[in-house]
Amino acid sequence: MLTELHVREFALIEDVHLELSPGMTVFSGETGAGKSMLVDALGAAFGSRASSDWVRHGADKAEITVVIEDAGKPAHRLLREYDMDTGDGVVLRRVIRTDGSSRAYVNGAPAPAKLLQRIGQACLDMHGQHEHQSLLRADFQRELVDAHVAGKDIAAVVSTYRQWKGERDALDKLLTERDQGVREEAWMRDELKRLQALEFHPGLVDELKDQVETGRNFARIQQAASAALAVLEDDDGNIRTRLASCTHDLEAVAEFKLEIRESLEMLGQVDALLGEAGPNLRALLDETVDPQTLEATEARLLDIHEAIRRHDTDEAGLMYLLSELETKIARMDTGVWDEESQRQRVDTARKKFLTASETLSATRIMAGKDLCKQLRPFLDRLALAGMQVRIDVCPQAEDEAAWSEHGYDTVVFMAASNPGEPFRELAAVASGGEMSRLVLALKGCGAMASAPQIAVFDEVDAGIGGETAWCVGELLAAMGHDRQVLTISHLPQVAACAAQQVHIFKEQREGRTISQLKPLNDDERQEELARMLGGANAKSREHAHEMLARGAALGIA
Question: pTM value?
Fold first, then answer.
């Protein structure tokens, strides 16, 4: 719901702050008082193209701010998409400068004008301004028809379309991989053989490095082992003999001192370790190094380093690449069978989607005809007896580009201004006022349940009067039960049905003309209706009183 509207330096409006109520609000005033400016200001707040003409003469900028409470889930999804605050209210602000440039803000943060437009599409319907009319959007026309279609038929199309699209995407991926694989097949097979020849496994590089270092330093290792054994075992005065003599001397006095007993224990451990070192060193002296084996090990290590460098990776990356190549080549080897199987799955899913879409299409055709029949009496009551409305449901089963979760139909509302005239699309036939009344007719027959929560009607009463005007007013007021309705009208019948009335008028101030907006109380409403009837005299006031009573009898005004 639109709760506040603040307009500054916009055309003839100097500074207006208006608080709006739920239900139906009517804006009335003399011709030229500024009613169209109000529509332009709302359009600017919701992202319409900025014009330098909107800036009041003498000002450097115009500002329009609107506050929307309970904007709804679609608007909140848009705010999250732009990483913006999603509190209870949404504040839109548009600043327009004299050079035609503009800035947009949402909840105080700078935002693209496109976001204002998208919020407008989610929250606002401006009838009489074609760029904002939901009824002219193909998706909205389809939704109006689908509201009269069984949910199971729609759900079946959604399910089968997603299945078909998933299978088709899987086939596209398979074919892309195959085509890419064909171009790279020779390289992949050669590279796989080179990597497999390395017999690579985790820790292999460290193992080979140890083997190479051992082979290169074999002579030094044996020399050091031989010298160590001489110290340990060969000479008469070797370490273990001298250690035994030391132990014998200490044992003779061990009973007299704890420290000697502890030392003896440690020396025993040393002797045990020295005993183990000897066999290890002797085993080294028995080893030999094969130069050819060493050369092969060095070459293998170099090959691994070259593969790591070639692929700009490490050991883990090399193992991953090996696994990936094996998988890709295996897919290529079985690709013909995989492709055929996937094509069969796509074809099966395609047939299911076409069957479900055919059922939905037939149901839509019937729903469209029923909706047109339901519209007829409302069109007659709204002075559109000559307008003929037809809903064309056009299946496009052969054009996969037209397929979606909504089926393969295009749904188009067609109209003829008079019987015998050719049918054309709504935008080419209906005027702003006729379009607005068509929306009222759709509302009257229950077809507008999913429409945006704020509706603005301009020109809705063009060319009508009498009981037709009362019908328009009553339908607008009824719409106000479910949505907020803002109506610009010059008809007292329509104004009498509103819950709130705002008077738009001009006044002179310091040699300048400005437009003002004033919410009216009950007495002021009676005076304004009397003016709209032709003049504020006793007879017109009495008639205005009766009209307000009729509006109040609706339980709305």
Answer: 0.60
